[in-house]
Amino acid sequence: xxxxxxxxxxxxxxxxxxxxxxxxxxxxxxxxxxxxxxxxxxxxxxxxxxxxxxxxxxxxxxxxxxxxxxxxxxxxxxxxxxxxxxxxxxxxxxxxxxxxxxxxxxxxxxxxxxxxxxxxxxxxxxxxxxxxxxxxxxxxxxxxxxxxxxxxxxxxxxxxxxxxxxxxxxxxxxxxxxxxxxxxxxxxxxxxxxxxxxxxxxxxxxxxxxxxxxxxxxxxxxxxxxxxxxxxxxxxxxxxxxxxxxxxxxxxxxxxx
Length: 257
Known about the structure:
Elements: H1 3-14, H2 20-32, H3 39-59, E1 61-65, E2 80-84, E3 99-103, H4 118-129, E4 139-146, E5 151-154, E6 161-163, E7 166-168, E8 184-187, E9 192-196, E10 218-219, E11 223-232, E12 238-239
Antiparallel strand pairs: 1-2, 2-11, 3-4, 3-11, 4-9, 5-6, 5-8, 6-7, 9-10, 11-12
C-alpha cells in the first residue's frame, strides 16, 4: 500500500481552497454591499418632497410667519401659525371672531404697489409657504369683527365696540388698548369683512383704509384661510383659543356670520 500517496490525496482534499471558488465568494459579498450614494437620486427625492410640501401648503395647511405685533397678545412676532385653507372651501364663510389670513391686494394695498421681480417673488413665496420667510407684503392676519350686513360702531358710552347695537367685550385686546382711538360707524357690504388687529394701537387695519376705495372692507374671496393652530414656538404649540365675544350678536338680513 502506498501510504505516501494516500496522505498526499487526503491533504489535497482537506486544504483551503484558494482557487476560483474563493474568488467567486468574494465577488458575491461585494455584490451584496450597498453602492455609493447617488447624489442625483437624493436630489430628485428632495425635489419630490419639497413639491409635495408646497402642494399641501397651497391647498390644505399653510405655515405662516407672524411678522408684526398687530395681533398681540394672541399672536406674537416670530410665531408660526398653521392656516387652515379648507375652513371656507365648502360653503362656510368667515365668522365674527375668526382670525384669518387674507390677501390685501385692492383693499389694504393698491394693486399698482404690488409689482416686483417675478423670480424673486416666486422664491420668496415658496419660502413663505413653508414658514421659512416672512409673508408677502400683501398678506395680512387680522380678526374678523364684522361680516356682510353688520353695522359696526365705535364706541359706546363705556368705550366698547358695538356690532348691530350689541356691545362687545373684547377680552382678546392687548392690555391697555382701547377698542379704537378713532370713532367710526360703518355698515359692512355683503361679501366683505371688517377686520381689526388685537393690538389696536399698533394695528393698521380696516380703520386705516376708510377713505380709500373699498372703505377698508376685505372681500371674502380674498381670504386665504383661518388660523386654527400655533405651530411654533414649542411652548405655545396648540389650537388657537376661540372667543365668545360675538356670541350675542343679533343677525341681520345679509348676515352670514
